[in-house]
Specification:
With about 200 residues, the chain is an all-alpha fold. The chain has one domain: Multiheme cytochrome fold (Orthogonal Bundle). It is about 60% helix and about 0% strand. It has 12 helices and no strands. Helix 2 crosses helix 7. The longest helix has 30 residues. The protein is globular and about 80 Å long.
Length: about 200
């Protein structure tokens, strides 16, 4: 049976033609645009899957230190035990909305890995030694972004505290534009005294 493959010379001519076509100035921009589009279409689902994995509570508590400390505190808080069944996850408070911002948060989250491997923060007792600096870092970040993660679930104008004092404080906060974290800095996790830098940032010093 005769071979189905073209003669070597003819095959080389075809390859040379394709190479010249792809490298031609009038086509090179189009080729780059196509490659960029294919990479974008193929890359977004990958990044989305990566974000969903690293934003999941299952991933967060896969670290035994997190499971034994802050995750345990979350499960005992009102953010987890509401009668309505509405339950906040780790990412609701600590990961920004939007894929790009979320991926950047995951990069910053490698600090926890650094703390585990290099600084030797591996037990609940070790964590207590850095709890103050950890809480302070998160609080200052929330001051800087005006508690935007809180606002993805809570609509300030819709909050109706039962007590008169709470009603008055929320009315004042609405009027002055106070950030949520300025008052609610000990809501979910173990109480930590605010730092001087935090008090200064919220105008209390």
């Amino acid at each position: 049976m005769p071979s189905q493959n073209p003669p070597p010379g003819e095959q080389n001519k075809k390859q040379g033609f394709l190479r010249r076509l792809l490298l031609a100035p009038r086509f090179s921009g189009l080729v780059l645009a196509i490659l960029f589009f294919v990479g974008l279409v193929g890359g977004v689902p990958v990044f989305d899957a990566v974000d969903r994995h690293f934003s999941s509570d299952a991933f967060c508590v896969s670290c035994h230190l997190i499971e034994a400390t802050v995750a345990k505190e979350l499960r005992q808080s009102s953010h987890w035990t509401r009668k309505s069944g509405v339950r906040a996850s780790c990412s609701d408070c600590h990961i920004s909305e939007g894929l790009t911002a979320a991926m950047w948060d995951h990069v910053l989250g490698t600090w926890d890995l650094y703390s585990f491997v290099v600084r030797g923060i591996r037990t609940p007792e070790d964590f207590e030694k850095v709890r103050f600096e950890t809480a302070n870092r998160v609080r200052l970040r929330m001051v800087g972004n005006d508690s935007k993660n809180c606002r993805t679930c809570h609509v300030m104008e819709a909050i109706k505290p039962k007590r008169k004092r709470g009603q008055r404080q929320h009315a004042e906060a609405l009027e002055s534009g106070v950030s949520c974290i300025a008052c609610h800095y000990n809501l979910v996790h173990k109480e930590v005294e605010p730092s001087d830098a935090f008090l200064e940032a919220i105008g209390e010093k």
